[in-house]
Amino acid sequence: MSAPLNYRRILLKLSGEALMGEADYGIDPKVIGRLADEIIEVQKAGIQIGVVIGGGNIFRGAGLAAAGMDRVTGDHMGMLATVMNALAMQDAIERRGGFARVMSAIQIHDVSEDFIRRRAIRHIEKGRIVLFAAGTGNPFFTTDSAAALRAVEVGADLLLKATKVDGVYTADPARHKDATRYDTLTYDQVIERKLAVMDTAAIALCRDHGMPLRIYDMTVPGNLMRIMHGEAIGTLVS
Ligand code: UDP
């Protein structure tokens, strides 16, 4: 018999880059398919799951502003990029027999539901995988902040940040051979040491509401389920 499940409700943050695979833009159907499989596996095991998806594989407001565009317009485009990614994930989940709902923080009624907290919780309780799109709905924020916000709002037990590295390091492991990985960190250590975990607003929100955050390597198949069974994979910030 497998180990018992450690969580009842989780919020998973997937960056837009996580969906690109080896490409430098857009969505790799194989990668999004594998992530959908892992998300469905966790839901079928009885864990309620919401997902916040980023948009950096398509547009980022800061990048567009650096190229001369009005920042707020750039952020609107970034938020719309997250909606496209969420629609792609909804499609991938439903083609595999799962149930998903895109809930957007900006109103696009022909395409997605609005984010209404109580309705989102109801979907999650019914076993639907809720894909939170358009970040917080406000410019100058990130989808990391949206993930922390939604995790707190829906009462998740754990916020997971899926990355391509196996946790948080003392320095960039790609450039510093002597960098070591942290197993655990406090919120204040992340902020004081300026560790590239999530932006400060997201970490502060987690800290103020006691939301545990685990950063893990989503490129290793099965990691999500292993964490659900209590394995200490990656770095825990609490
Ligand atoms: N964005 C925003 N408000 C939010 C969330 C996102 O304006 O609450 C915009 C912002 O321009 C951001 C883009 O959407 O660069 C894509 O989100 P993010 O960079 O967080 O995506 P990720 O890095 O996770 O792929």
TrEMBL record:
Activity modulation notes: Inhibited by UTP.
Enzyme Commission (EC) number: 2.7.4.22
Binding site for ATP: 13-16, 56, 60, 163, 169, 172
Pfam families, alphabetized: AA_kinase
Binding site for UMP: 55, 75, 136-143
Protein's pathway: Pyrimidine metabolism; CTP biosynthesis via de novo pathway; UDP from UMP (UMPK route): step 1/1
Domain Aspartate/glutamate/uridylate kinase: 9-216
Primary enzyme class: transferase
Location within or outside the cell: Cytoplasm
Keyword Aminoacyl-tRNA synthetase: no
GO MF terms held by the record: UMP kinase activity
This protein's UniProt keywords: ATP-binding, Cytoplasm, Kinase, Nucleotide-binding, Pyrimidine biosynthesis, Transferase
Oligomer status and interactors: Homohexamer.
Matches recorded under HAMAP family: PyrH_B (MF_01220_B)
Functional note: Catalyzes the reversible phosphorylation of UMP to UDP.
Protein name: Uridylate kinase
Organism: Dyella japonica
